[in-house]
Each structure stands twice: as structure tokens, then as C-alpha cells.
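Q: Could you write out the predicted structure for this multi-component system? I'm mainly interested in how the pieces pack against one another.
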Amino acid sequence: MNAELIAVVLAVHDDTPMVRTLEEGRSLPSGPLRTTHASLQKGVRDWVEQKTGFHLGHVEQLYTFVDPPCTDGTRVTRISYMALTRVGADTERWKSWYDYLPWEDRKTTVSSPMVNVLEEKLLGWAGRDHLRQQRCAFNFGLGGMAWDDELVLQRYELMWEAGLVPEAPHFVGGVNFGRSMTSNSRRILATSIARLRAKIKYRPLVFELLPEIFTLWELQRTVEAIAGRAVHKQNFRRLILHQNLVEKTTGLSAASKGRPAQLFRFRRELVGSRRFMGSKLPLVKSS
Amino acid sequence: MNAELIAVVLAVHDDTPMVRTLEEGRSLPSGPLRTTHASLQKGVRDWVEQKTGFHLGHVEQLYTFVDPPCTDGTRVTRISYMALTRVGADTERWKSWYDYLPWEDRKTTVSSPMVNVLEEKLLGWAGRDHLRQQRCAFNFGLGGMAWDDELVLQRYELMWEAGLVPEAPHFVGGVNFGRSMTSNSRRILATSIARLRAKIKYRPLVFELLPEIFTLWELQRTVEAIAGRAVHKQNFRRLILHQNLVEKTTGLSAASKGRPAQLFRFRRELVGSRRFMGSKLPLVKSS
DNA sequence: GTAATAGTGTCTTTCAGACAGTATGAC
DNA sequence: GTCATACTGTCTGAAAGACACTATTAC
């Protein structure tokens, strides 16, 4: 056994982006590549679907790394994968992304006390170093710079470098920003979120996280959950409808309040022959 | 030895994007991960720099895959990397990308006989299958659809599926579109080109392929070589200059013909704290 | 002067972003 | 009717895209 597969299994449940975890949320599911597996991707699908019973809608490779060599000279290769699924209700083992990376949720935590402390600590680490200051400003959207939701990994790595996460050997202690995980699992989670956030802007991946039939408002809330940002409603609608990637179904949503919404279906046959929303989210200015 | 590193070493020489090859251009350099290597990336740097003497400016992981298991149950994990360098003159071992993927060079080969035959064969394969037709149109920019320079891998895979490359087990024979390579090397090359084309649009990677001092025209020609497309000169200038990522140097270029050009230097200190050209190339309409 | 390349100014079209208003349900 | 949510139409300002023009060299 020389290759280990790590899976970041993601779902969105109740407008919260969730990740499937083990050991009270301290690690990610992983398993060895078997000789019966025809490929790495098939290996991931196999044991995740077997173990959890979930159907994985989209599986994609993230990153490969090696452990330091064992005494006998062999070393384990670890290959991380992102997988999207629709079920995410088994709430014991599913945790919100933002439990681990709370600063990534700009929808609710902008200028929260946590973020204020975080920015303060970062700038303290930067000190008079102009380059560090620039990196902090760019990656965390400080000093008037725009927040870039795709820089998830860079932000985690900056936190690591600054010793603000327990995973770092030079952890300064004090406040804990989000739950930590064993070894580099939180880093892998960050990689996965970054990839997903980047990709939903040009590939129709959101639909893997939604039920077959959905309203535009549900679609928007799912995108917002993933991006961690509020999206401009009317412009989002315009964008989606101009793409012709969704089509109306006959029904209407059961509205508890207000006017019932039109239901839509993803035109799945167009995967592989269409782009999606032209690479940008229609954000609202407030963020 | 259970992990093998494969390197796609790229450079741009004389406005031609080059890749470093072995065995008369039929394979890519590769080598085993040693126990002395602290990480995969260090491993790649180590043996490429040792073997070739080139300094690698930027190294980035591409994709990992496994061979079918050996009789003893072990299987080799192969991890591919893209590496950028500035030297690319040892012309024996360096080949143009477009020798292998000639249809990717839209600057010179749009509506060439080769492309015409290629499109014809693709549509022949698609037949009456509407989905296949759509995929061909989308990926190869047929029927009025725009050419997307980032779909390098998708195009190669479509060629493979259609049996138009000798690497495919169901190769239909006849015309060879570009040089083929052993095993899946051409696929890895395609992955690398796709990654680079995508990334130069938002990260300042081009400068790793240019000398320290360059003119805007040289910068543009390097970008064009990579993207395989002609770029609108004035709009490209505007884009670059508005980014503040390059600064004038005192000198002027030695002009053989025409007015000498201003020389520029990349503000390397801004890597990691800047985007680059806002995610789009200013193309010229003719393409 | 011409040829050739470098560089500037500006017009037009497109689209992101924002706003105001109408429609349809529950009560 | 009010409240709440769904949906439509349109204005504006900032870029993308395109075009016309000036500048500086070699000959």
C-alpha cells in the first residue's frame, strides 16, 4: 500500500456548505488505493460511495503530496480529491466549512470581532515589513483592497506563516481562529474550497449540489453559501437566464410566504458544451 | 521507488513556445522521487536543474495518475509537473508545442488544410449524434462558436475519443495530426498548456519566460505564443500599463528597424500581492 | 522624403451594477 | 387592504474593443 486517497466530500445543506469529516470533525475520510481500482478517481468513488452510500456527482483531483520517508525508505503518496454530493443531512459527521475557516464567510462575519482580531494579529505579524503588509492587504482585502473569494489557500497559508493556526509548528497560541484539524487536513479543505469557488464561476458545478428541481433563489443561496458572499439578486437572475443552462419546469414552488417561485431544471445534457456565468459573480456592493 | 515525477519544462524561444523532450521528442523527462527529496516539488527542481542546468522559475503540480498494478501488487504513482524556464535554445531537445498539437496554434493555422481536414474528421465521427456535434462545436469553435484557448485538454481528449491520434487504441489511421508521443505524454503536455494558458490571464507567470528586461512588444509576442492567438496591440498595452506590474527602465531597445522601444522590468516584488490582466486577453477580431 | 515600428488619444459598444417598479401569493 | 417574496424594465458608468493619429528610428 503506497498510495492513500483523501476525499473532501462537500455538500450544501440549509444554505450551509458542509464537509464530511471523521474523528469528531478533526480529520477527513481517507483510504488506500486498492489493486482492484482501475484508476485513482474510480478508487475515490468506490470507497466513498461504499462507505457512506452517497452518490458522488462530481469528483476531481486536488493535490498530491508525500510524507517524509519511513525507516525502510518507502513513503506514502497522498492524493487528495474533491467530491460533490447532494445529501448532507447526517449532521453528526457533516460540519460547516466555516467552522474551520470562519474568516472565509464574508456573508455573516465581515467586521465581526473575530475578523477584527484576526486582521490585527496579521498586521502585527507583518510589522514594518512592506511586502508582508501588501500580502495581507491583498489576500484579506484590507486597506480598501477587494476581497477575492478564491484566495482561500493563500489566506490559510498566510495564517500558517503568521503562526495563527495550531497546525503551524510556531503557533503563537492565544485565540483559535476556527476549528483546527489533524496534520494538513485543514489545508486540503482550503484547497478544495478554493477550487470549487473558482470553478463554479465557469463550470456548472453548483447543480451537483442542488436537487433536480430548484428555484433561482435556491440556486443563488447555494452559490452564496459556496462563495461566502452576498450576490446581487436581479443581476444574478439575468446572468443565469441568459446562459440558457436552466429551463423552466411546469411546477411552482410551495411558498410559505410571498409569491411562489418558478421551478427550474438544469439542462444536464449541456455539460461539456457550455460555460457558466462568464467567470464572475454579480456581487452586491456592501461587501 | 514507488513515485515517479514527470516534468513538462516549458520555455519560449523566438516567439515559439517550446517543451523539453527526450528520445527524439517522443517523451517527457521523468525521474524517481528520492528519499533525499524533502517534497515532490523539491524533487522536480532537484533533478531537472541538475540534469539540464536550467534554473526553473516556476514549478507547479499538474496531475497524478497510477499505472495498472504490477504482478507483485505494487503500482507506480506518476506525478506530473509544469516548470517554466527562460533558456530554450538547445534546439535538439526542445520542440515546439505546436509540433504535437498543431491545431492549438490559431495564430498561423486557422483554416489551414490541416485544420479543415481535422474538423471534417471530427464531424464525421460526430455523425448524427447531436451531443457529439455540440461538443465538437464548443471545443473547436465550430459553427460560429468562439475558440476557447483554454480547452486544450478537452480538445486532445476529443481527438482521442474520435480515434484521431495514434495514442488511442481505436486509432482510425490515416492522417496524423501532429507528432505523437509515447504513452500519455501528449496528454500531459496538453494539460500543461491548458494550465499555463489559463494562468497567465490572472497570474504574472509570463515573466518567468522572459528576460529580466523586455519591451512590451516582446511581452505581447510571448503571450501570443502561449495563447496561440493574436492579441490587440494597443489594448494589450493599456491593460499591462494599468496593472502597474511593470516599470520602465532607463534604456531603449536596440531597434533594427523602426523606432526603438521602451524597455520594461517586471516588479517581481509584487508577486503574491497582485493579479494580472484581469482574466481576459484582448484578442483581435479576425480570429 | 519613405518604410517600419513605437506609442497616444478617443470613440463606440457592451455589460456589470444598481434602482425602481410590477406581479402574485398568504393573511 | 398589508406583508412578503417573485419577477421585469431601465438607467448609468466603467471597461472592452476598435480606430485614427502622432513619434522616432533607419535608409
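A: Regarding packing and overall arrangement: The mean pLDDT of chain B is 88.
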